[in-house]
Amino acid sequence: MDANQGEIVSALLGAGCCVQSLASVGRGCPDLLVYSPLRGLLLIEIKDGQKPPSKDVSEAQKTWHKNWKGHVSIVRCFKDAMGAIGLT
């Protein structure tokens, strides 16, 4: 779990979202399944905003995202999370 996941999940819950962790699925699957009242169901991959962006997506995640037919938002902070759910 990324160090900022708790803060991001709290922000999403505070914004009226439902959040289900998928982190234990592994194999590149995104970290969260989120229901946003404004955007519906979303998949969110959380990355630690303190790490260099070029090093934070694993090969398994790249493969999973490439093969997924839908959208996956990658968020690194509170502001990214609010944008993913349509609040910015």
For this entry, give a set of tags:
alpha+beta; single chain; about 90 residues; four-stranded mixed sheet; Trna Endonuclease, Chain: A, domain 1; globular
What does this structure look like?
This protein is of the alpha+beta class and 88 residues long. It has a single domain (5-84), classed as Trna Endonuclease, Chain: A, domain 1. It contains 3 helices and 4 strands; from the N terminus they run αβββαβα. It has helices spanning 5-14, 59-67, 78-84, and strands spanning 18-21, 32-36, 40-46, 73-75. The chain has a 4-stranded mixed beta sheet, with helices on one face. The longest helix has 10 residues, at 5-14. The model has no long low-confidence stretch (mean pLDDT 91).
Question: Radius of gyration, Cα only, in angstroms?
Answer: 12 Å
Structural class: alpha+beta
- CATH architecture, please? 3-Layer(aba) Sandwich
Oligomer: single chain
Largest sheet entry? 4 strands, mixed
Strand elements, count: 4
CATH class: Alpha Beta
Order of helices and strands: HEEEHEH
Mean pLDDT: 91
What would you call the shape? globular
Number of helices: 3
What do we call the CATH topology?
Answer: Trna Endonuclease, Chain: A, domain 1
